[in-house]
Structures are given as structure tokens and as C-alpha cells.
Write a structure and sequence with these properties.
The structure is a homodimer. By secondary structure, the first copy, chain A, is mostly helical. Chain A has two domains: 13-52, Arc Repressor Mutant, subunit A (Orthogonal Bundle); 72-183, Tetracycline Repressor, domain 2. The first copy, chain A, has helices at residues 13-27, 34-41, 45-48, 55-67, 79-95, 99-106, 115-127, 132-151, 168-183.
Chain lengths: 192, 192
Amino acid sequence: MVTPGGARPKLSRELIVTKARAIADASGLDALTLRELAHALGTGQASLYRHIADRRELLGLLVDDVALEFPTADPGLAPRERLLKVWLDLHAFLSAHEWVAKVIAEGEYISRNAAPFAQRQLDSLTGAGLGTEDAMRAYRTLYNLLLGFLLNKHPMGHHLEAVPPSTEDEEFRWAVSRFLDCLLPGEPPQGQ
Amino acid sequence: MVTPGGARPKLSRELIVTKARAIADASGLDALTLRELAHALGTGQASLYRHIADRRELLGLLVDDVALEFPTADPGLAPRERLLKVWLDLHAFLSAHEWVAKVIAEGEYISRNAAPFAQRQLDSLTGAGLGTEDAMRAYRTLYNLLLGFLLNKHPMGHHLEAVPPSTEDEEFRWAVSRFLDCLLPGEPPQGQ
DNA sequence: ACCTGAACACCGTTCAAGT
DNA sequence: ACCTGAACACCGTTCAAGT
């Protein structure tokens, strides 16, 4: 419950992260300045530094917060469909928060909260018949493929495109499908 | 020939781009400020604006300049090997200029000079048996895959890696190889 | 002891004054 | 007419002064 006119809730890391996410989602990464953030929280810029080390750390906290909402796979699906769905879900989710990919690209963050997601995908991949090393490589490939699609809004040479306009979403689905087709042993695609 | 003590060569777009690339290559994108650039050119900041519209345009010019050096394929190779080699070459080239991927990721640039490269890759892909639409999708996939590998230095969940340390180079080779294997019709990999 | 307004050292960009 | 030092409006970060 927000106290309307009286005392503000005490400033905290959580409060900062929540407000910062709201600003980034609404207005983009560039609009997320420490001045704007402090103002939106009704405090001074210097006060933020009692809870975060610097902007870099704040961005890391934001990514970590978003990572909590990464999709989980439907265990009822077959391996290939389960993998496909989860990566399409993640693509859709991160497309709705485009600042996340930018933060990952510009910094060197290690998101603790993304580890369970990674582990689940590795399990899916080994469960589909891959060795541990191939599973790791496949995971990194899928992740880097996703990052590339999220960041590259104007693929170079785009002005060559005479082809029917397919959405980024369709293109990502095509790419992941093709990759899974060749990656997973046995189990041919059999039209769908 | 640089005139040592006397008159400087007249400022030009070319001179600005050359010096800017040198700074970015040597010290990274953050070090490429208009102040530093002007200083390195022995002129004032305001003078730069007589040749470029703003920093954004400068970065676009830089990418365009780099694109002139994108690799060309060896026509003597078979389609699959030709494609593999050219994308590994491009990966190696852009790894040596890491600021390029960052510029592409943060801006929305359309590099005119990258168009011939794109066209050659499309030709290789159709030459390998793909339809025009699939060739376009394959090109975008390869390009986005490359961008993801260049930008993502710490793939999320990296602290899971118990697997033998493979270099980014090897991982990219693995990813492209696998993708080409499933993409190109006929012509099985047949061990190598 | 805890908080924070005001300052500091940057940045990209503009403008008015110099030649 | 062309060039550019100095200023402007920002930014992240720090510090000294307030409670």
C-alpha cells in the first residue's frame, strides 16, 4: 500500500530495482538515468549509492530480476517440441523487454538467476540424446542465436530483401527449427 | 606524407573516419569521444561537425568503412566449405574489431558497403541448392548467430561449464558447421 | 549515524565570436 | 565565408555539509 501524502516507504535495493525496471520497460535503457530513477523514487541521486555500487551493478541486478521470469518447459511435450517452445517463449519474452539484450551485450554480467534456466535446457538437450559437450555447445548456440536476433534489427544488406516480409518471430522460429532438426538424433521432423 | 611541424592536412571525412577507427581499434568504443578524436586530429570539437552530422553518423561511417574489408569466398571450394570458411573468416575479422558488433547492436545502421558481401553469401547459398527464401533466412540466421557470438562474452549460466574449455572460435565453428550440415541438401558431411 | 544538495569531471552538441 | 573556443545541457559519481 502506497502511503499517499505522508512518509515514503524506506528506500531499498528491491524498490530501486522495481522502479528501474518500470522505467526501462516504459522508456528504454537510455531513459534510465540515475537522476530520473532518483526523481521517480522521490529521493536524491546520492541516496541510490547507499544501496547500489554503481550503474553497472544496477543493470546487473535488473537482468537478474528479469531472469526469474524466464519460461519453463512443458514436460508433456516431446524433446524437440519442448525445446522449440521454450526458446520461442524466451524470444517473445525478451522481445517485450528489449533493454535486456542490450545490457547483456554491453556488459559482462553473470546472471545467477539464469542458471536454473540454463540447467533445464541442458537437461532437455541431453534428454534428447546429446552428449554433455554437445548439449553445452547447443545451448550456447541457441542462446547466441537468440541474442543476435534480439539485437540485430536491421540485418546488414537488408535492402536486398525482395522476399515476402517475414516477421522476426517467424525467422527466429525457422532458425531454431532448422538447428534442432539437424542437432537431435533420430526422430525426423515428419512435417508439421 | 605528414607535414611534421607546419600546416596540417585539411580536415576531411576520410581523415576523421581513419583516425576514429584507429582510436576504436586501439582503445575501444568508449574511448572514442569527439573530444579525443578532435584532439588526436589537432583540431577543435566543433570543427568535426562541419564534416559529420553527429556521433551516430560517425559510427555508421566507421561500420561502412570496415565493411569494405569483409572477406570474399574462395571460388575453388565446394559450397559447404566455401560458406564455412567465409563465415569463420568474418568471425575472426570482427573479433579483432570488437567495437563493430557493439555499434551494430546499439544503432540501427544500414551498411551500404556490406551489401556485396550479403549478395555473395546469398549466391553461395542458392548455388548450394537453397531456394531464394531459404537462402535469405539462412543468411540472416548466420549473420545473427555471428553477432550473438561476438557480443556475448559471458553466456548466461556460464558458471555451469564443467566441460573442457573450448574457445569461442571453436564454438562458432561448431555452430556454423552444424547449421550448414542440416541446411544444405544432399552432400553429407562425410567426416573431416 | 545516516542521508543528500551541490559540486565535480566528464559527455555530445551548439553558438557567438573570431579570422 | 569558414573555423572554433567557450558555453550549454546533460551524464555518473563524490563529498562536505546537514539532520
